[in-house]
Write a structure and sequence with these properties.
homodimer; mainly alpha; Arc Repressor Mutant, subunit A; 2 domains; flat; DNA-binding
DNA sequence: ACCTGAACACCGTTCAAGT
DNA sequence: ACCTGAACACCGTTCAAGT
């Protein structure tokens, strides 16, 4: 029976969760679906587009919330991190598709964060940049966290000096995010000061 | 005549600059050096280690400077960005090796930034985290900037809506970094407030 | 419209055997 | 000690031909 786009994405997500991103190959996926590798290229132009679709599915649950701008930024980032941690190599996959511009969902998340930033005292023209800065942080932190998580889930012992990097990850995540939120809060003073300089 | 580690790294860096990270393969590198692919594995245990050595060479010039903590953070980040932009796909390569923990130079840069952070009003225990947050930003921003740079150097036209993301990159870079530096400056107030809560 | 089969042009890594 | 040659077990992508 016919192969649908949804089946392909389902199977790809299952492969990711079970074996990780290194085993999420077009050939492996085709084998799993019992089709020839070429069949996938009827439904997706290339591997990047397929990975983008998987990323978008992972990010489905990441939504905006009502509240002030701090609540919105913190909630979206917490949901983004949770979504990434819920899938093997989730952070790595989403980072790659974000970098290649193939994730629609990430574009939407940047928009939400940019909107929240302009509710903060960030100038509208800087909203997207502030949003991207937050996203770079969440992706970087979570990729790091997840690789350590998966490393010691695999039974390998971490050197003692790295132990501090694995305890209280949620608290550590909040600390770095607060740095950015505080920076955004400080932006008003600078905007006002800059405006004065031009008077 | 004999193949030395240095020759391999030199040739790898040349390959990177001329053709990009996708063409920096063990086989291609061996061909360039007129040796068999297996020869490289006498000098490096695997590809990751080789890429780590190339990353470390790219980051040679990134050094600490004297000054107050803001100057140090800003100088190190500016130098890091410059170093990445000086090599094709430099940001992507260094991001990958940093994530895999194979870059000694990145470890050193994190140490320098962590030290600067503890000169800022960041608690010593949070210094490394603040440093990593800064690094996530620099790598994310620069990878983004470089991919756009290389994309339109290749002659492709960018959609109008993306134009705002390519103008004044240095100024835009400084804006995001200021967000983090301001956040670090705000950390003292929080540390003091938190201490009060425990009295 | 949707898929197969087969090919094209590659990969990273290992390892017995050579010098 | 250092390297070759050849193999192993794969990749992503294309495309004529089939149904």
């Amino acid at each position: 029976m016919q192969l649908h786009k949804r089946d392909v994405i389902d199977a790809a997500a299952a492969l990711l969760d079970s074996y990780g991103i290194a085993d999420l190959t077009m050939r492996r996926l085709a084998r799993e679906l019992k089709v020839s590798p070429g069949a996938l290229y009827w439904h997706f132009p290339n591997k990047q587009a397929l990975l983008g679709a998987v990323a978008d599915r992972i990010l489905q649950t990441v939504d905006d919330v009502p509240g002030d701008w701090r609540d919105r930024v913190e909630a979206v980032c917490a949901r983004l991190r949770d979504a990434l941690l819920s899938h093997t190599d989730g952070a790595e996959l989403v980072s790659a598709t974000f970098a290649s511009g193939h994730s629609q969902a990430m574009a939407r998340i940047v928009e939400v964060l940019a909107d929240a930033a302009t509710q903060a005292p960030v100038a509208p023209s800087k909203g997207e940049l502030a949003a991207r800065t937050v996203v770079y942080y969440v992706l970087g932190f979570t990729a790091d966290e997840q690789s350590r998580l998966q490393w010691d889930a695999s039974g390998a012992a971490l050197p003692d000096e790295q132990a501090v990097l694995t305890t209280n990850p949620t608290e550590r995540f909040a600390f770095g995010l607060r740095l950015l939120v505080d920076g955004m809060a400080a932006a008003r003073a600078e905007t006002v000061a800059a405006a004065r300089n031009f008077e």
